[in-house]
Design a protein that fits this description.
Blueprint (H helix, E strand, L loop, with lengths): L2 H7 L4 H8 L3 H8 L8 H11 L3 H4 L4 H17 L3
Protein name: Helix-turn-helix transcriptional regulator
Pfam family, one: HTH_26
GO molecular function: DNA binding
């Protein structure tokens, strides 16, 4: 997840993003952490809409899981294409 870097580039705090999205600050904090293992698709959609980015800009797929999760990633990515 690249959210922490995106916020830094845009000079936005986690608290500001929480306010803009209506998500709980704890949720934003979790998305900015290094160990995001689960997240609701609706949460990703909300963040992407508010930041006006595509999901590919927000998430990164680790090489080891790329093969097994590729079809799932493509389905998710296609759902959020503009």
């Amino acid at each position: 997840m690249k959210l922490k870097e995106i916020l830094k580039e845009r000079d936005l705090s986690q608290r500001e993003l929480a306010r803009m999205t209506g998500l709980r600050p704890n949720t934003i904090s979790h998305l900015c952490s290094d160990n995001v293992d689960r997240v609701y698709l609706s949460t990703l959609e909300t963040v992407c809409k508010v930041l006006e980015i595509d999901i590919q800009e927000l998430i990164e797929v680790e090489q080891s899981s790329c093969t097994s999760n590729r079809s799932m990633y493509v389905k998710v990515a296609n759902k959020f294409k503009r």
